[in-house]
């Protein structure tokens, strides 16, 4: 039995795809093992957004070869699509597969392994037009279910459309079927994943279905306790979706909505499809219908042309907005993007200072959000996340909770009352005997 090990860099989408490819290998009789466990084959799923993607890729290949010198090393994923030739020249790499080919790895591998030279199979990204269904199954807590891939937006800083191609989706029928399969494994929470999931519904280049209808259909799937939307563009997060989530028992009150900048000047330069006024409107709508909702925000600092004044606009905008946490990205130039050609480049020192300021703001926001919710009752999904005698989990509105460790709590949904914020910044619940089953 041949042993295969996987390594995933990047986002939830990559994790869902690695998981699906690993199931293909297991179905073919391969034994899935840990990276350290002398595999015969390594499959490394790369990311183009990761800082120093090339260095990381080289390092992982080096480690793989140290563990199993005679192993077969395959590189897939976004970075493999963007730089197939460079990757094929890394010592120790045996095969590189692009976006349109990675799901065919299982059929191609035997032929590949029979030849000595490094195999490179990465078509032009325009050829990645087929949607490949994928979902992750690691434990019973949470599954990332891919519903959409690619993006038609073309923001000035972004390489994802180059690495993943045009927007394309699964059908509602097929997503619902996957949700039933996932429910049958006992998983409690599904996170809907994609590159631009609000744009769900394009099949073979034609818009056939709507994301809101997918939301309605999934809400009816018995056996899944929680559904979470991973991230959705503000212009695609409609009142219809927000209003539905507000009364749904399965869709949780947690929205992750990329903002990228609080300055309209920068938003226009980035080629984003909304202005800050629309963002305020989305936050207000969510908070009016769900005052306890958690709202996470992606923001990029140091985009070309972001002067001190424009950064301050973003800072003040975020400070005044009723949001719960930030994911802060420090802008860095990416080849073949419009932004990389722009002038008014912000010095790296300034980018880092701004990033630090927003990270501090994020902590302040998170603490405020947690404090507002103390004394209230929520449902926690406990995970196999144990530290210093405490077990952790997340509420439906994404508050990280700590309770006294009890192995019986793992993968269980429990109703708890939030008590206090501990020194690690997590919320502690009342004593475990106060933890009782959800009715
Ligand atoms: S919406 Fe913009 S940032 Fe997001 S994937 Fe598409 S091009 Fe990239």
Automatic annotation (TrEMBL):
Q: Which UniProt keywords apply?
A: 4Fe-4S, Cytoplasm, Iron, Iron-sulfur, Metal-binding, S-adenosyl-L-methionine, Transferase, tRNA processing
Q: Name one Pfam family in it.
A: UPF0004
Residue stretches making up the Radical SAM core domain: 137-368
Q: Mind telling me which Gene3D superfamilies this protein's record contains? A: Methylthiotransferase, N-terminal domain, tm_1862 like domain
Would you tell me the Gene Ontology cellular component terms? cytosol
Q: What SMART domains would the database entry show?
A: Elp3
Q: Which SUPFAM superfamilies match?
A: Radical SAM enzymes
Q: Per the database record, which ranges form the MTTase N-terminal domain?
A: 2-114
Per the entry, which co-factors are needed? [4Fe-4S] cluster
Q: Which GO terms describe its molecular function?
A: 4 iron, 4 sulfur cluster binding; metal ion binding; tRNA-2-methylthio-N(6)-dimethylallyladenosine(37) synthase activity
Q: Does the keyword Disulfide bond apply?
A: no
Q: Which organism is it from?
A: Algoriphagus ratkowskyi
Primary gene name: mtaB
InterPro entries in the cross-refs: Elp3/MiaA/NifB-like_rSAM (IPR006638), Methylthiotransferase (IPR005839), Methylthiotransferase_CS (IPR020612), Methylthiotransferase_N (IPR013848), Methylthiotransferase_N_sf (IPR038135), MiaB-like_bact (IPR006467), rSAM (IPR007197), rSAM_horseshoe (IPR023404)
* Protein name as catalogued: Threonylcarbamoyladenosine tRNA methylthiotransferase MtaB
């Amino acid at each position: 039995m041949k042993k295969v090990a996987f390594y995933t860099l990047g986002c939830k989408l990559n994790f869902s795809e690695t998981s699906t490819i690993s199931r293909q290998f297991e179905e073919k009789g391969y034994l899935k093992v840990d990276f350290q466990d002398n595999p015969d084959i390594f499959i490394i799923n790369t990311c183009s957004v990761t800082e120093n993607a090339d260095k990381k890729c080289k390092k992982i290949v080096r480690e793989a070869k140290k563990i199993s010198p005679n192993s077969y090393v395959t590189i897939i994923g976004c970075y493999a699509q963007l730089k197939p030739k460079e990757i094929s020249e890394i010592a120790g790499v045996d095969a590189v597969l692009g976006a349109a080919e990675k799901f065919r790895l299982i059929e191609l591998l035997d032929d590949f392994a029979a030849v000595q030279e490094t195999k490179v199979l990465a078509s032009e990204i325009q050829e990645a037009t087929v949607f490949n269904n994928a979902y992750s199954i690691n434990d019973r807590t949470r599954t990332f279910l891919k519903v959409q891939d690619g993006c038609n937006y073309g923001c000035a800083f972004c390489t994802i459309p180059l690495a993943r191609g045009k927007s394309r989706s699964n059908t509602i029928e097929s997503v619902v079927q996957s949700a039933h399969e996932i429910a049958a494994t006992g998983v409690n929470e599904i996170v809907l994943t994609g590159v631009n999931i609000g744009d769900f519904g394009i099949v073979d280049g034609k818009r056939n279905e709507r994301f809101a209808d997918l939301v309605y259909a999934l809400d009816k799937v018995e056996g899944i306790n929680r559904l979470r939307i991973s991230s959705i563009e503000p212009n695609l997060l409609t009142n219809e979706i927000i209003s539905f989530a507000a009364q749904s028992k399965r869709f949780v009150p947690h929205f992750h909505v990329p903002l990228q900048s609080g300055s309209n000047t920068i938003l226009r330069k980035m080629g984003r499809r909304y202005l800050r006024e629309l963002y305020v409107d989305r936050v207000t709508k969510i908070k009016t219908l769900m005052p306890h909702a958690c709202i996470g925000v992606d923001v990029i600092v140091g985009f070309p042309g972001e002067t001190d004044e424009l950064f301050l606009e973003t800072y003040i905008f975020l400070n005044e907005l009723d949001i719960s946490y930030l994911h802060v990205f420090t802008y860095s130039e990416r080849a073949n993007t419009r932004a990389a050609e722009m002038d008014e480049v912000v010095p790296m020192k300034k980018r880092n200072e701004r990033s630090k300021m927003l990270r501090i703001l994020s902590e302040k926001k998170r603490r405020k959000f947690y404090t507002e919710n103390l004394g209230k009752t929520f449902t926690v999904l406990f995970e196999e996340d144990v530290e210093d005698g405490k077990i952790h989990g997340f509420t439906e509105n994404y508050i990280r909770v700590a309770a006294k460790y009890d192995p019986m709590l793992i993968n269980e949904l429990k109703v708890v009352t939030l008590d206090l914020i501990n020194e690690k910044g997590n919320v502690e619940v009342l004593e475990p005997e106060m933890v009782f089953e959800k009715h």
